[in-house]
Design a protein that fits this description.
- The strands form two sheets. The chain has a five-stranded antiparallel sheet, with no helix packed on it. Strands 1-2-5 form a three-stranded antiparallel sheet, with no helix packed on it.
- The protein is mainly beta.
- The longest helix is centred in the last third of the chain and has 7 residues.
- It is about 5% helix and about 30% strand.
- The protein has one domain: Alpha-Beta Complex (Phosphatidylethanolamine-binding Protein).
- Strand 3 and strand 4 form a beta hairpin.
- InterPro entries: PEBP (IPR008914), PEBP-like_sf (IPR036610), YbhB_YbcL/LppC-like (IPR005247).
């Protein structure tokens, strides 16, 4: 069984958000600009894609967006992006919202540290020659305005603290390969 089939097996069963991601290739891969310059990928620019969602249930007070590669060459995969406290009135993260120096991240939203401990989007960086890696982009609707975790929390710890607050979730898999 591939990792893309088992990533969410242990999560609460909640209604599904509909997610769309702009700017992918026709076969569902990231564009080169979405790959990681920080991790040395030629042509990479660490530009996060535009992500939109809808169908949030009544009672939604905030959203969390994450991006995770379960096939990274570690025992635990790799979190590339993590944003919490996105206001319930927001239904789109525009392109490059993952760059905290840009003015694209919605007010009140907090870019959390990803696995390289940077508070930003770090693009896809699969090992050269690997099969395509499935990058899980997940949007979760929560029943709290502010998820009560320290701003230096890991994405895994943040996800653990969402238990009991999840109202809906949607995910899309986007692929990357070198």
């Amino acid at each position: 069984m591939k990792n893309e089939d088992i990533v969410f097996n242990n999560l609460a069963d909640v209604p599904e958000l509909t997610i769309s991601i702009k700017g992918l290739t026709n076969d569902g891969f990231f564009q080169k600009k979405n790959y990681s310059a920080i991790f040395g990928i030629d042509g990479g620019q660490d530009i996060s894609p535009e992500i939109s969602w809808n169908n949030a249930p009544a009672g939604t007070k905030s959203f969390v967006v994450t991006m995770y590669d379960p096939d990274a060459p570690t025992e635990s995969g790799f979190w590339h992006w993590s944003i919490k406290d996105i206001p319930a009135t927001v239904t789109t993260l525009f392109e490059n919202a993952g760059d905290i120096k840009s003015d694209v991240l919605p007010d009140k939203a907090i870019a959390m540290p990803m696995d390289a401990r940077m508070n930003r989007y770090v693009g896809a960086a699969p090992a050269r020659g690997d099969e395509p890696h499935p990058y899980h982009i997940v949007v979760t609707a929560l029943d709290v305005d502010v998820l009560d975790v320290s701003p230096d929390s890991t994405p895994a710890f943040m996800n653990f603290n969402m238990i009991g607050h999840e109202l809906a979730r949607g995910s899309k898999i986007v692929y990357a390969q070198l």
